[in-house]
Amino acid sequence: MAPVVEVRGLNYRYEDGTIALRGVDFRLNAGESVALLGPNGSGKTTFILHLNGLLWGDGDVVVCGLRLDKSSAPMVRRKMGMVFQDSETQLFMPTVIDDVSFGPLNAGVDAHQAAERALAALERVGMSAAAARAPYHLSAGEKKRVAIAGVLAMEPEILVLDEPTTFLDPPAQRELQSLLSGLPQAKLVVTHDLRFADALCSRAAFFREGKIVAEGTVAELMRRFEWD
Known about the structure:
With 228 residues, the protein is an alpha/beta fold. Helix content is 34%, strand content 25%. It has a six-stranded mixed β-sheet. It has a four-stranded antiparallel β-sheet with strand order 2-1-4-5, with no helix packed on it. Helix 3 (96-106) crosses helix 4 (111-124) and helix 5 (140-152) packs parallel to helix 6. The mean pLDDT is 91.
């Protein structure tokens, strides 16, 4: 079976000359959950920003059989849902239902179908009762769920989550892990929360100085490496 993400020889240098990625090779299979681990500044977030064209480096990125370039980027972005570290960056509309409907509407889905998608996504994350609420009234855990619902309403094949447990207390972290475990999409999870990663992900890749230097289970990489 072809991978849903395949990256070959990815290099990236920031404008100030800092080399962030050095020949990264990576594969993500359908339905698989993979944690991206490593110290701060090792290239994890830079890497995921290349997967839907938020950054452009040298190398090949193929998503769901589409080679990522300027012409394919809009289609790739529909297949890959990004959930950022701070949920508030994704919540900006007056009500929860407006926020979750925004992506489909912006993609050209008609208003009725966009509302149906939004309600289905909110039900999937357990937030149907909050549809009419203002996002700023929600707890951190509820905001994270609504941000995920907004991504699910776009019907992606892949979820990419950057530090998803930030700002969440332990009960909310456990609820998030349970929610994500029940979703069928392939997942990439950038995280320093090793307990969360171990519970959610069957495999991990360890970044150091812009390269993936090891792959294995979270437990295996924890035994091999220490990092901040």
